[in-house]
Structures are given as structure tokens and as C-alpha cells.
Automatic annotation (TrEMBL):
GO terms for biological process: lipoprotein biosynthetic process. It comes from the Bacteria. The keyword DNA repair does not apply. This is Prolipoprotein diacylglyceryl transferase. Belongs to the Lgt family. GO terms for cellular component: plasma membrane. It comes from Candidatus Roizmanbacteria bacterium RIFCSPHIGHO2_02_FULL_37_24. It holds the Pfam family LGT. The chain crosses the membrane at residues 12-32, 44-67, 87-107, 119-138, 158-178, 190-210, 222-243.
Length: 273
């Protein structure tokens, strides 16, 4: 683990900070590439990006402080001094970011769904890069394991899962899929909002699967906060997707059954002697 990338005595450059900057710039670059395909004004989109980022960072910190209130209390300094009292809630950041995004786009009369389709891929890419940073910084500690892929974290006993890298890999896969969905939307092969719906199903599913592989989990009323939030979003998003696409799902299911039956009829039966 390498929490401090460079110590210049006067100033310290933290590994996770460097990766957060990389995540922002790569995410912003892909967003810019996507937006160039549309009629949206770049200044409107990037104004939205910065406002959303501020809302996400504020609520990420706020959720972490509230869920660890016994360590922070009502101290404003502890809330602000993130280097001295580190901690952010990714789930809290996404909740705040999406809320800020929806409010801003509503005020500016921009298409929430359309912009979401173009922003989903860049968001997943940024999350992937950020997770790599949190792994090298040792801030996302995995649970104890004897599995082949394991490391030792500073300050923790035993070998542990490389959970942050698992998440990073899945987010890279999600980024690839989201971009493919976007291209299908542009060719009118998929309805608007498909990328957003994919994210609202894919991201919660990764958290439900991998949260049990984490050591430093956040709890609300003695229940894992990330799993509760992810479970609610996953159920709602899956239900919404199923309801809106029930005709397509039924049609594809019938086609699949029909192909299986045709294949079964074509398969010759062996004669027994």
C-alpha cells in the first residue's frame, strides 16, 4: 500500500488524491467526447458537471460523518479537515450527486434522461479509476481471506481480499457496456434512458455482491448502509425496467423458447440396437 505518493516535507501528495484527479479528468474527457455527438452546449454540460461534483463531494462527506457521528460529533473542523479525519461515503456521494444533477437540469430546463445516457459511461470510468486509487491508498480494506488474490493492508492483521480492485474491474466492464448502450441509443436500437437504467441496476448489484468482502463497512442502525441503499435502488430500477419493457421481454422469451424447440426437433435421435 502507498497512502502517500510523494512527501516533500512542506506538502504531501496523497495517492488517492492523485487518482481522484485522474478519475475526474478522464471522466470529463469521455463526457466531452460523448457530448460532442449531441446538440448540447458544452458550457451547459460542464457547468452541470462542476455543480454535480460539488454536491456529490459534500454529501459523500456528510453521509460518512453522520454514519460515524460518535467520532465526529458536531465539530465543523473535523467535518472540513478531511486529511486529518478522512472518510467519504461513495453511496452518499452518488445520492447527493444525482439529486444535485436532477435539480440543476430541471432549473436549466435540460433533458435529464438524455444527458444521463451520455454521462453514465464517464461516471463508471471515473469510479473505476477512483477504486484503483483507494486500493493503493489502503482506504478500501477487504475482509480476511486465504484466497489466491490477497494482500496485506497496513494496520490490519492477516491477508485480505483486494475488494477495491474487484470493484474497479466491474466498473471498467460497466463503462464498456454503458458506451455500447449509448451507441445503440444513437442508432435508435434502444430507448432513451437505457444507460441510466443500466447504471441503476448494475451499480447496486456490484455493491450487494462485494459489500460482504469489505472490512470498513458503514452501518445505519446496525445494518450495512450500502447494502440497504443498493437493495432499494436495485429493486426499484429492476421493477421499473421490467414494467416498461414487459412486451419486449415476453417477445424475446417466446423467441428463445421457439428457437429451443426448433433445435430440439432438428437434433436426430440415436437409434438403439
Amino acid at each position: 500500500m502507498l497512502p502517500i505518493l510523494l512527501d516533500l516535507k512542506i506538502i504531501r501528495i496523497y495517492t488517492i488524491g492523485v487518482f481522484f484527479v485522474l478519475a475526474f479528468f478522464w471522466g470529463a474527457y469521455i463526457l466531452w467526447r460523448n457530448i460532442k455527438l449531441t446538440s448540447f452546449k458544452e458550457e451547459d454540460i460542464f457547468d452541470c458537471l462542476f455543480v454535480t461534483l460539488f454536491g456529490a463531494l459534500f454529501t459523500a462527506r456528510l453521509f460518512f460523518v453522520l454514519l460515524n457521528f460518535e467520532d465526529f460529533g458536531f465539530s465543523i473542523l473535523r467535518f472540513i479537515l478531511i486529511n486529518g479525519f478522512p472518510g467519504l461515503s461513495l453511496t452518499g456521494g452518488l445520492i447527493g450527486g444525482f439529486t444535485t444533477f436532477f435539480i440543476y437540469t430541471y432549473i436549466k430546463k435540460l433533458s435529464v434522461i438524455e444527458i444521463s445516457d451520455y454521462a453514465t459511461g464517464p461516471l463508471l470510468l471515473a469510479l473505476a479509476i477512483g477504486k484503483i486509487g483507494s486500493f493503493f491508498a489502503g482506504s478500501d480494506v477487504g475482509s480476511v481471506t486465504t484466497f489466491l488474490l490477497r494482500v496485506t493492508y497496513i494496520g490490519y492483521e492477516g491477508t485480505r481480499h483486494i475488494t477495491a480492485l474487484y470493484e474497479a474491474f466491474l466498473f471498467f466492464v460497466g463503462f464498456y457496456i454503458a458506451q455500447k448502450i449509448l451507441y445503440r441509443i444513437r442508432r435508435e436500437g434502444a430507448p432513451q434512458g437505457s444507460s441510466l437504467n443500466f447504471f441503476l441496476i448494475f451499480y447496486p448489484l456490484t455493491q450487494i455482491i462485494l459489500d460482504n468482502f469489505k472490512d470498513n463497512r458503514l452501518y445505519f442502525a446496525n445494518l450495512p448502509f450500502d447494502i440497504i441503499a443498493a437493495g432499494i435502488v436495485f429493486i426499484v430500477a429492476t421493477g421499473y425496467f421490467t414494467f416498461n419493457n414487459k412486451k419486449n421481454i415476453l417477445r424475446e422469451s417466446k423467441n428463445l423458447v421457439s428457437r429451443v424447440r426448433k433445435y430440439g426437433k432438428k437434433t436426430p435421435h440415436k437409434k438403439t440396437t
